[in-house]
Design brief:
The structure holds two protein chains of two kinds. By secondary structure, chain A is mainly alpha-helical. Chain A folds into two domains: about 60 residues; about 220 residues, MetI-like fold (Orthogonal Bundle). Chain A contains 17 helices and four strands. In chain A, the strands form two sheets. Chain A has a two-stranded antiparallel ribbon with strand order 1-2. A two-stranded antiparallel ribbon of chain A has the order 3-4. Chain A is globular, with a radius of gyration of 26 Å. Chain B is about 75% helix and about 0% strand. Chain B is built from 16 helices and no strands. Chains A and B meet through helix 1, helix 2, helix 3, helix 7 and helix 8 of A and helix 1, helix 4, helix 5, helix 6 and helix 7 of B.
């Protein structure tokens, strides 16, 4: 025993071991995430030209919040309840739905609050518009945010609904089903550049498969990627094809948790197939559905490659999205300060949704 | 369950499954057709879905004088390097946070997990200026290091280590084994499945990442295959020929698709964790 005591004194204590094991991660974490994160804020408070500062580190100028003003604000900005009616009405509807479902106890507290806040923002923010003789300082920023929202608004329901239907249909442990699941998941592992390569040519009016099929049926091919009406649709289709897999897998995991007994009990009441899906699957999957939707919003709000590679943000800026605008402002226009202000804006939105995601993930089933 | 409605379901599902598979099959098929034919039409046989007339010329050309092999090698180096790096820092930190007791444990855990909220797009500009100041751009470590700071791996390993029963450790402690030895000889072997999931998650991310390499690697010698493919697809028709670009796309996808088909269970798990937490 004596020798053991002696040798154990040579060992590091529990706390020492812990710090030793933590150091490598904490070092890279502090250097490459925590520090850049705060440095991003700092850059956003400066007039910071990429090239000028590269040559002379003192060429930056502290400007306070002016970058935020130059990006998000304008001259003579007013607020009106019907400045952009469509979005604002959706916002009001969202608030009503949140209150109503919460009253009916059909929605959890977190979901209701999240939906309520998001909808209230949708009512408030689009109400701002330039008054007489006024204009936005940056004419492209809000339309870009709008395009990103349109992209998210089309992709998320598209992915969610199709993934949910597929998951419900594929939720059986047979070989055929496993193969089908593999097929639907396969595109998910491809990189964004492969995906855009495939679909760029799929959509090509001269060489594309879609055009070839249209011609077989005697139609004239659509010029998808350079047509203002179809460019966004093309990007959405590409993204749904690409990212259906994760949503489907998350739904399948959620379906595993629904007890078989429920379906058997329902079958006694003649509720099978669609009826069972509506009355048993959907209500029991509510939490997973919310989680998948929030997740998809976070994921797709960061869209970049599809827009950058397939349409270059065009035609006429109709597919310009936020991350691509940040990238261009920083690395084409060399305006790091303004780009960082936009990145902070992006982070705040993402952060908000991450908190919702965290709260839903933690929330106990009611 | 094996009744008629089940078979109808299979038939009904086969149609969307076929549609889902078509774009990928089309890419593979085009990559095996001669460029002269493709310049005329892409729908020679069965709308181009069957590679007749057939040629392996595109692949031969790719390896003879394209930059694809170099980019492919870069991707391998970056993806393997990043995977090993992430495994090293995540298993150690995850173990310390899950099983060891020390001062400031809770604040440090919280600090690490808050990082899950920070998207890559929120830090890529400051990272760019930092690496530029250090003169690190156009190097392998510039491509590898930033991702090692992402706490998803720590989170994953922490969850795993927390679930291991305490008595294994306690028995070893009574025998006077040091914490570091317990970590190395007892815990790491147990953690193999979790490490596998994390390794695949990281490898897929590294292989497919586009934004950071686009910003950091400006010289073609340091392009990853994902970035290289993006650089040739804009002018595919004129310079390279459609077949060859498609062959590059196939080559770029091959490792991840093979990985997926072999380790499907881990990949699905990895993407689920990665999708839901980072």
């Amino acid at each position: 025993m004596a020798t053991r005591d002696k040798s154990s004194r040579r060992f590091l204590s529990e706390a020492q071991s812990a710090w030793l094991l933590l150091t490598p991660f904490l070092a890279v974490y502090a250097l490459f995430l925590v520090y850049p994160f705060f440095r991003g804020f700092w850059i956003s408070l400066h007039d910071w030209n990429l090239l000028a500062v590269a040559f002379n580190p003192d060429a930056k100028e502290y400007v306070g919040l002016r970058n935020y003003e130059r990006v998000m604000w304008g001259r003579n900005i007013e607020w009106g309840a019907l400045a952009s009616p469509a979005l604002q009405i959706i916002g009001v509807l969202g608030v009503v739905i949140a209150v109503f479902f919460r009253r009916m106890r059909r929605m959890s507290r977190t979901t209701a609050i999240a939906l309520g806040v998001a909808s209230a923002m949708l009512f408030l923010l689009p109400g701002f518009h330039p008054g007489e003789g006024g204009r936005w300082f940056d004419r492209r920023f809000w339309p870009t945010v709008g395009n990103t929202l349109v992209f998210v608004g089309l992709t998320v329901p598209g992915v969610t609904v199709s993934a949910l239907v597929l998951a419900a249909a594929l939720n059986r442990e047979t070989r055929a089903m496993a193969i089908l699941r593999t097929v639907f998941f396969l595109s998910q592992v491809l990189s964004v550049t492969v995906v855009t390569l495939i679909w760029q040519i799929m959509f090509s009016p001269r060489q594309g498969l879609i055009a070839n099929i249209t011609e077989v049926f005697g139609g004239s091919p659509i010029v998808w990627l350079t047509n203002e009406q179809f460019a966004m649709a093309a990007i959405v289709i590409t993204t749904v094809w690409w990212s259906l897999g994760i949503a489907m897998i998350l739904f399948l995991a959620g379906l595993q948790d629904i007890s078989r007994d429920l379906y058997e009990a329902a079958a006694l009441d003649n509720a099978t197939g669609l009826k069972a899906f509506w009355y048993i699957t959907l209500p029991n999957l509510q939490r997973t559905i919310t989680l998948v939707i929030v997740l998809q919003i976070i994921l797709h709000f960061q869209v970049f490659g599809q827009s950058h590679l397939m349409t270059n943000g065009g035609p006429n800026d109709t597919t310009q999205v936020l991350v691509r605008y940040i990238y261009q402002t920083a690395f084409r226009d060399s305006e790091l300060g303004r780009a960082s202000a936009m990145a902070v804006f992006l982070f705040l939105i993402m952060g908000g949704f991450s908190i919702i995601q965290f709260l839903i993930g933690r929330e106990e089933d009611r | 369950m094996m009744n008629r409605s089940y078979y109808w379901l299979i038939v009904a599902l086969s149609i969307p499954a076929f549609v889902w598979l078509v774009p990928t099959v089309w890419m593979v098929s085009l990559s095996f057709q001669p460029n002269e034919v493709l310049a005329r039409t892409t729908s020679t046989t069965a709308l181009g879905l069957v590679p007749i007339p057939f040629t392996a010329e595109n692949y031969a050309a790719l390896f003879a004088f394209g930059q694809t092999p170099m980019w492919f090698l870069n991707s391998v180096i970056v993806a393997v390097g990043m995977t090993l790096g992430v495994l090293a820092v995540s298993t150690t930190a995850g173990y310390a946070l899950a099983r060891l007791d020390f001062r400031f444990k809770t604040p440090i855990t919280v600090l690490c997990l808050i990082g899950l909220m920070v998207p890559e797009q929120a830090v890529f500009i400051p990272l760019y200026t930092m690496f530029a100041d250090l003169g690190w751009h156009n190097s392998y470590h510039a491509l590898i290091l930033p991702r090692m700071a992402v706490p998803i791996g720590v989170f994953l390993m922490m969850q795993f280590f927390k679930a291991i029963p305490k008595d294994i450790e306690e028995a070893a402690r009574l025998d006077g084994v040091s914490w570091l030895r317990i970590f190395w000889y007892v815990m790491l072997p147990l953690a193999r499945p979790a490490m596998m999931t994390l390794a695949i998650l990281t490898f897929l991310y590294a292989w497919n990442d586009y934004l950071w390499p686009l910003v950091s690697a400006q010289q073609k010698e340091y392009f990853t295959i994902t970035l290289g493919l993006a650089s040739i697809q804009s002018n595919f028709a004129q310079s390279e020929g459609l077949g060859r670009v498609m062959a590059s796309g196939v080559i770029a996808s091959l490792p991840v698709v093979i990985l997926f088909l072999i380790f499907q269970r881990y990949v699905v798990q990895a993407m689920t964790v990665g999708g839901s937490k980072g």
